[in-house]
Design goal:
- It is a single chain.
- This protein is an alpha+beta fold.
- The protein has 2 domains: 175 residues, Jelly Rolls, CATH 2.60.120; 113 residues, Homeodomain-like (Arc Repressor Mutant, subunit A, Orthogonal Bundle), CATH 1.10.10.60.
- Helices cover 48% and strands 12% of the residues.
- A 5-stranded antiparallel sheet has the order 1-4-2-3-5, with helices on one face.
- Helix 3 crosses helix 6, helix 7 crosses helix 8 and helix 9 packs across helix 12.
- The longest helix is centred in the middle third of the chain and has 20 residues.
Length: 308
């Protein structure tokens, strides 16, 4: 719930909007925001470089454009409407320059009052373990999504912003995307809540804690039961998900930081540099250095980092 203090009652409409995080008060575009909506044609270059951007979920809807990633379909380049769902702390970067479409970015805290089952569905469609999701949108679905987006855009551009309304519209948009991605809603049961709780614990502790026993103890169940639940819901064990999160962070730091391999290895708790290299190759089929070279070459060729 958002409250307005006595001081805020005396602010202008724009200042009130700044106080809840929709208009920047500093040079950082996103530092005081929980939601950011923009037409891609009007999206400033500084958005991509904003350090606060890494905390946002991104919905990038390209309209009548070629896909930004490689489509394995008779090696043809397909044109149409594409929605890219990119999670926080992303590995991938979209080149939006000159593209037709819209952008909706939001922080997880905007949804934290919602049911855990809904949040888990959101994590799934964004592929929270790090790889982007892409949905091709047909004409009928595009009309449905457009009606919701226009209401969001209209409310977002008001000087006096109704955050509760925007939150509700964002949820409707996400529910439509869940429907589009999965064609049905996730069964809501206690195991869904445990998966959600595991994912939250993982974000907090993956740097230091890399055993199923630690997370199982926090959840009050056995490691065996935790693995059963994760295999059923996500088709992976706890250790596999922990390793996925580590690999995601390694990739993110290689792409988006200036840290050396030695620094990245140390930051993530790998005391042995050679083990760090073996770990990365075991899970990706290439060394960190080979991945770095591949990224650089791909960026030069396609001006984005959307590759497998």
């Amino acid at each position: 719930m958002w409250y307005i203090s006595e001081t805020e009652c005396f602010l202008t409409p724009v200042e009130k909007a700044q106080s809840v995080g929709f208009y920047p008060k500093t040079s950082s575009m996103l530092s005081n925001k929980v939601l950011y909506i923009r037409d891609l044609a009007d999206c400033p270059p500084s958005y991509l470089d904003d350090p606060a951007r890494r905390e946002f979920f991104e919905i990038v809807w390209l309209k009548n454009e070629e896909a930004l990633h490689t489509i394995q379909h008779d090696f043809q380049t397909l044109k149409g409407d594409w929605i890219y769902l990119i999670p926080p702390y992303r590995v991938h970067q979209l080149n939006k320059a000159g593209k037709k479409g819209v952008l909706v970015s939001f922080k997880q805290e905007l949804l934290e009052d919602d049911l855990k089952e809904f949040l888990l569905d959101v994590f799934r469609i964004f592929n929270i373990q790090g790889e982007f999701s892409c949905l091709q949108v047909n004409e009928e679905t595009a009309k449905s999504l457009t009606s919701v987006y226009r209401l969001m855009e209209e409310e977002y551009n008001q000087l006096s912003i109704n955050l509760i309304m925007l939150k509700a519209l964002l949820k409707v948009l996400l529910l439509k995307l869940i429907q589009l991605k999965e064609h049905h809603f996730t069964l809501q049961d206690i195991q869904e809540k445990r998966v959600y709780e595991f994912m939250m614990l993982l974000e907090l502790h993956y740097h230091e804690e890399r055993t199923a026993d630690f997370y199982a103890e926090k959840l009050g169940i056995s490691a065996k039961r935790l693995n059963q639940i994760l295999k059923e819901k996500l088709d992976k064990t706890a250790v596999q998900l922990i390793h996925d999160r580590l690999i995601l962070e390694v990739k993110r730091q290689i792409i988006h930081s200036e840290n050396t391999m030695k620094e990245i290895s140390f930051n993530l708790g790998f005391k042995d540099r050679s083990y760090f290299s073996r770990f990365f190759k075991q899970h990706t089929g290439q060394t960190p250095q080979e991945f770095q070279i591949k990224v650089r070459n791909h960026v030069l060729e396609r001006e984005n980092t959307l590759f497998e």
